[in-house]
Design goal:
Elements lengths: L1 H18 L7 E7 L4 H12 L4 E7 L1 H10 L2 H5 L3 H13 L3 E5 L12 H15 L3 H5 L5 E4 L4 H7 L5 H15 L6 H25 L3 E5 L5 E5 L11 E2 L5 E2 L8 E3 L6 E6 L4 E3 L2 E11 L2 E9 L1 H8 L8 E6 L5 H4 L7 H4 L5 E5 L28 E5 L6 E6 L2 E7 L2 E2 L1
Parallel strand pairs: 1-2, 1-3, 3-4
Antiparallel strand pairs: 5-6, 5-17, 6-10, 7-8, 9-14, 10-12, 11-12, 12-13, 14-15, 15-16, 17-18, 18-19
The chain binds zinc ion (ZN) (2 copies).
């Protein structure tokens, strides 16, 4: 138990000092599940100790969220109250508040409910909140996504264990994959080394400026992805508008950029399930032509996948291409997390929907409408899905010369 307390403490400190990197006088917003408040409390304490001005906590509750979608009218669900918009305007526009989201949703949360109603309300609320996405997606503020176990989520990951064992096992996995040690010094060292390693990969890709990459795997994936001019491969760390470094995902194993919106052609087969709007989508694949999904199928959750693709025009185009070796620590754990933060970091992946403007030189200054002109996709959604098969081969092309990037699922 002593070890657990130390690790929890170090997790909170890492989130504050290395994750969002809170500076003296800044504000921090924490989104946390109410079922497990321990980490949010420790994060708040660590933030004040670092000199934070104000820590604002938004609690969420899966039980109440399900009630909302079940009982509220469509009109009520589509609404975002004026005071919530005002609160966001105040903290993002005036205060440039940093944000930590603790994401721990039950993967089956909205199973069996009216998918059309859920999709419409999420779409309508996203439209009303869209102007705030630039604060995180353009790195105007520091932001961080982390997870802690909740009971239903833990039981989904470890269905053969009893509830307490499942929660305990999921804590173990989160600490392990997040490189948390009982010593804070060691935890920081782990992260500094890890960030350096990922940055070396990104530097290699950036120096080559490939025109396109070709994905091939025996499961049927055969996809050519063009990359936009002046694209930037990013890795673990980013810089906010004040120039402070931060790490937006813990854990993270990926090196990623944006594809050219209209330059994607071929077939792409997913290798892991995707949880979207509280429903599991599994065994799915897409056919792309000139960037757009022209055909798709899913053995499980096909209706939800269709709703996702119909979110808006940009939802049918890719917005992220990310490289993660098959033998990354999360992948080697052989645990299927049903949580994108972990599953995306166990596998090469793509995202449908909005591209990070930070992935093309100078694009952060463009408006959403101008992103098209540099080949970047815009959308209300950004949903990662996993394609990193064991035999995945990726070849990069520069002026028709071929360079191996991935072989048998790992860096070539
Ligand atoms: Zn990603
Ligand atoms: Zn993503």
């Amino acid at each position: 138990m002593k070890d657990f307390e130390l690790k929890l403490e170090n997790f909170a400190k890492l989130a504050v000092e290395f994750g969002v990197n809170v500076q003296k006088g800044e504000d921090l917003i924490i989104n946390s599940p109410i079922e497990e408040p321990s980490l949010a409390r420790k994060i708040a304490k660590a933030a004040y100790e670092k000199g934070a001005n104000d820590v604002i906590i938004n609690w969420s509750d899966d039980y109440l969220t399900r009630l909302d979608y079940k009982y509220k009218s469509q009109e009520t669900l589509n609404n975002v109250y004026e005071h919530i918009i005002k609160k966001n305007e105040y903290f993002y526009e005036k205060r440039l508040a940093n944000r930590i989201s603790i994401y721990s949703e039950d993967p089956d949360l909205l199973n069996g409910l009216d998918q059309k109603k859920i999709a419409e309300s999420i779409r309508e609320r996203s439209k009303k909140m869209k102007k705030f996405t630039k604060y995180t997606m353009n790195d105007l503020v520091s932001w961080l996504v982390i997870s802690i176990p909740t009971k239903k989520w833990a039981m989904k990951v470890f269905p053969d264990l009893d509830e307490n064992e499942a929660v305990e096992k999921l804590w173990d996995e989160i600490f392990k994959t997040s490189r948390i040690d009982t010593s804070y010094q060691k935890t920081l060292e782990n992260w500094q080394n890890h960030v350096n390693t990922l940055n070396e990969k990104a530097d290699f890709l950036n120096s080559h400026q490939f025109d396109k990459v070709h994905y091939k795997s025996e499961n049927g994936t055969d996809l050519v992805v063009e990359l936009p001019k002046n694209h930037i491969w990013m890795s673990a760390d980013s810089k906010n508008s004040k120039g402070d470094k931060f790490v937006p995902n813990i854990p993270t194993e990926e090196v990623f950029t944006a594809p050219k919106k209209t330059g994607v052609n071929g077939r792409l087969v997913a290798v892991k399930p995707l949880v979207y709007n509280g429903v599991v989508i599994d065994e799915f694949e897409f056919e792309f032509k000139e960037g757009k999904v022209i055909d798709f199928k899913a053995k499980k959750g096909e209706e939800t996948l269709k709703e996702m693709l119909d979110s808006d025009e940009g939802a049918k185009y890719l917005g992220e291409i990310a490289l993660v070796p098959y033998d990354s620590p999360i992948s080697l754990s052989n645990v299927l997390f049903f949580n994108t933060l972990f599953d995306e970091n166990a596998s090469c992946h793509f995202a449908l929907g909005k591209a990070y403007p930070t992935c093309v030189k100078g694009a952060s200054e463009l408006s959403d409408q101008q992103l098209n002109s540099v080949g970047l996709n815009d959308s209300l959604i950004h949903e990662d899905f996993m394609v990193g098969a064991k035999d995945l081969e990726i070849i990069g092309y520069k002026d028709d010369k071929a360079y191996p990037i991935f072989k048998d699922g790992n860096w070539a």
